[in-house]
Amino acid sequence: MRGWLRSDGRKGIRNVVAVAYLVECAHFVAREISGVDREGAHVIGFPGCYPNPYAQQMMERLCTHPNVGAVLIVSLGCESFDRFRLQQVVAATGRPVQTLVIQNTGGTRSTIAEGQAWVRAQVAALAEMPSVPMAVNELVVGTVCGGSDGTSGITGNPAAGIAFDKLVAAGATCIFEETGELIGCEDIMATRAATPELAQELRASVAKAAQYYATLGYGSFASGNADGGLTTIEEKSLGAYMKSGQSTISGLIKPGDIPPKGGLYLMDVVPDGEVRFGFPNISDNAEIVEMMASGAHCTLFVTGRGSVVGSAISPVIKIAANPHMYARLSEDMDVNAGRVLSGEAALEDVGQEIFDLVCGMASGQRSKSEALGHQEFILTYKSFEPIGPACLPA
Amino acid sequence: MEKPKLTDPRLLLLSPGDSVFVLRDQIDIGETIWVEGVAVAFPTRLGLGHKIARVAVPQGDQVIKYGASIGRASRDIAQGDHVHLHNLTSDYTPTHALNKGDA
């Protein structure tokens, strides 16, 4: 495995230019700029015009993600996002960074032209950057599930859990999430906490999610989940929980917190305080983005119904839980965990296959969604309090 | 010695104390299958991942899968019944599903 060494000591498994828009009004221009090299330049951004400390921190973390080698900031000019601070944070890491303010650059056409020229030069420069050896214990891997069905919890998620156990045993950092999809698992999960204090924090995070979703009136449960045989949120949760494997849970983080050392971490994605801004994560990519903000080099995505999404910046590995869906959507699926149902493979085999694929991502291999050009990205308003002292390993 | 109760190989038991089986392959319309020694006729097609009651569950009792509760029976469930939105409800938030009519 090889990676690109950054000034903070982390290594990237990709070396892309991030084109970051700071309000929806600059999104089109950013997208057109990235069009000069869709493989080398990935669009990320925040659509809102009102300031939000969470969004600011997320964008700072994403623009200094190890897979990012240079950053072009695209601002309309009058939005509230602190572009000055974002530029300073990126510059402090030694990455090339440039800000284009559309209102000062002559409008759409001239900003696109200037941006494309900068991106082209940076992609060429990054191509010359030497890579260095990288080990499994330097990897950060996230896992999400989307489009779950009754097979997710018996094939894809436990196979991802086995891959997580192998990664954690090798010293890697693994992050699982969606406390709203762990409702009903709080007691069994708490028994895996490294300390009694952390166990309390894990329970509290799920209780917060249960209350948050109860206020909103809907659980994290889509109609397609029911078509696929799932009936209740706690049933979906027990399946989703399988992604975490069997390892000791070392810590609890919130989006943008970088785990301090290897191990297994739960990400608490539900905002703190009273319910504001609507649903915590409005679709699967919001979760992938939060994994990336905490440093995930790549994300395992288990699906039963069949999702096709990928992500900007970090590759997504698509694991099909349902063999019938795999047969229909194989062009989008990296792994067929549905083989377990027909007895063609054991969970252990699929877990090893996923582990090998993760290592492959850091050895020049590309995931299906990546090769297809998927670069979804979404970031919306949230607010968090800092994590408590018992949340991180000593 | 008690004779083993016949169960269709498509029915997967995830945990010893579970009150439901999970389908590892689909059941077609009109099929009659064995559920722990009881022959059950299915009037509709059921896709893989769906649940079949392994035992009767009285209304109000917990339904167990993976060895844990996945909610409560909203009406009496008989052995061999399809267990889904019509007879199982969450103890947390209600489940929202699109009404597709007869589709």
Describe the structure.
- The complex is a heterodimer of chains A (394) and B (103).
- Chain A has helices spanning 27-34, 53-63, 83-92, 102-105, 108-127, 156-169, 186-190, 196-216, 223-227, 233-241, 284-293, 323-329, 339-342, 347-361, 368-371, and strands at 2-5, 11-12, 16-21, 41-45, 68-75, 97-101, 132-133, 140-145, 173-177, 249-253, 263-267, 298-303, 316-320, 335-336.
- Chain A has 394 residues and is of the alpha/beta class.
- In chain A, the strands form 3 sheets. Chain A has a 7-stranded parallel sheet, with helices on both faces. In chain A, strands 4-3-5-6 form a 4-stranded parallel sheet, with helices on both faces. Chain A has a 3-stranded antiparallel sheet with strand order 2-1-7, with no helix packed on it.
- In chain A, α1 links the parallel β3 and β4 (41-45).
- The model of chain A has no long low-confidence stretch (mean pLDDT 96).
- Chain B is an all-beta fold and 103 residues long.
- In chain B, 0% of the residues lie in helices and 30% in strands.
- Chain B has a 4-stranded antiparallel sheet with strand order 1-2-5-8, with no helix packed on it. In chain B, strands 6-7-9 form a 3-stranded antiparallel sheet, with no helix packed on it.
- The relative contact order of chain B is 0.19.
List the helices and strands and how they pair.
The complex is a heterodimer of chains A (394) and B (103).
Chain A: E1 2-5, E2 11-12, E3 16-21, H1 27-34, E4 41-45, H2 53-63, E5 68-75, H3 83-92, E6 97-101, H4 102-105, H5 108-127, E7 132-133, E8 140-145, H6 156-169, E9 173-177, H7 186-190, H8 196-216, H9 223-227, H10 233-241, E10 249-253, E11 263-267, H11 284-293, E12 298-303, E13 316-320, H12 323-329, E14 335-336, H13 339-342, H14 347-361, H15 368-371
Parallel strand pairs in A: 3-4, 3-5, 5-6, 8-9, 8-12, 9-11, 10-11, 12-13, 13-14
Antiparallel strand pairs in A: 1-2, 1-7
Chain B: E1 11-12, E2 20-23, E3 32-35, E4 38-41, E5 51-53, E6 62-65, E7 68-73, E8 82-83, E9 88-89
Antiparallel strand pairs in B: 1-2, 2-5, 3-4, 5-8, 6-7, 7-9
